[in-house]
Design goal:
Layout lengths: L9 E4 L3 E5 L3 E7 L5 E7 L6 H4 L5 H19 L10 H20 L4 H11 L1 H6 L3 H19 L19 H18 L5 H24 L4 H18 L5 H17 L14
Antiparallel strand pairs: 1-2, 2-3, 3-4
């Protein structure tokens, strides 16, 4: 790996550490109850052949699914890891959100207002999860560790806690596209079934990921800056906190482990890895 061509890294904050994924492997580092830093790594699962993973409209959902498939593997490799949703408040919020949104769709007619309300309520479990300061701080660790590596900065404390490849940049376009798609679906089909609704959601997610990838390739354009603006504000106000030196130490350990596991730079697939 040359300094001019850093690996494309993404990640996910944990309640007590950080998971980083590269082209072929993932690495996880956590601080256990005794204060020790534990690290582990493993090959990432591939859910589709390379050709299918490069097809626009298909590759986005596949990459998101692969990122989610890493979670149980990370927990198996490092039992001390605590995943973001391992909290009864988050699980209760998920259940309440599902019930509330189903009721709203049953009682209210198709409209932009209803779908905007549904999408806003659907974001509540993530908001509740991020009320855990450690989780939000490790989200900041994730951004700082990866940005420092990409920029060739030795100390991750020196870089901002916001990152333009954060998955928060997908929230606004996915909510908007899902809302518009659902309104259109319900006006075209009298009683759309769960498969049709899932198709609309999948289509919205696919298009949002393609927009995300375009903004990453055209980072300095006005359109790309506008695309990133909502995500930046979400990160600044809610999704990230400034980490402590001890938390940054865990991030440095996770970064060192993924670089060790990735023996050479992968070819990439044309999509940015969401951080």
């Amino acid at each position: 790996m040359s300094p001019e061509q850093p690996l494309r890294l993404g990640g996910m904050a944990l309640r007590n550490g950080l998971l980083i994924h590269g082209p072929t492997h993932f690495a996880v580092a956590v601080r256990d109850r005794d204060g020790e830093i534990l690290v582990a790594s493993e090959s990432k699962p591939k859910l589709a052949p390379r050709l299918a993973a490069r097809l626009p409209g298909v590759r986005g959902p596949l990459k998101l699914a692969e990122a989610m498939a890493v979670l149980p593997l990370a927990r198996r490799r490092l039992s001390a890891a605590r995943l973001p949703f391992e909290n009864w408040r988050v699980l209760a919020a998920v259940a309440a959100t599902l019930g509330t949104t189903a009721l709203l769709r049953k009682r209210l007619g198709a409209s932009a207002f209803r779908e905007g309300l549904v999408q806003s309520i659907g974001a509540l479990p993530a908001v509740i999860a991020l009320m855990d300061r450690d989780l939000a701080a490790y989200h900041g660790v994730e951004h700082k560790a990866i940005a420092a590596y990409e920029q060739g900065v030795n100390d991750p404390a020196e870089v901002p806690k916001e990152h333009d490849r954060c998955g928060s940049n997908l929230i606004a376009p996915m909510m908007l596209l899902s809302a518009l798609g659902t309104v259109l679906l319900e006006r075209l089909v009298s009683s759309p079934g769960p498969l049709a609704r899932a198709g609309v959601g999948l289509g919205g997610a696919s298009l949002a990921v393609e927009m995300f990838a375009w903004s990453d390739r055209h980072h300095e354009t006005t359109a790309a800056r506008a695309f990133h603006a909502p995500g930046r504000q979400i990160q600044r106000l809610l999704a990230t906190k400034e980490p402590t030196p001890a938390q940054l130490e865990v991030g440095v350990a996770a970064l060192a482990e993924i670089l060790r596991a990735e023996q050479s730079q992968g070819a990439g697939d044309g999509l940015p890895s969401a951080t």
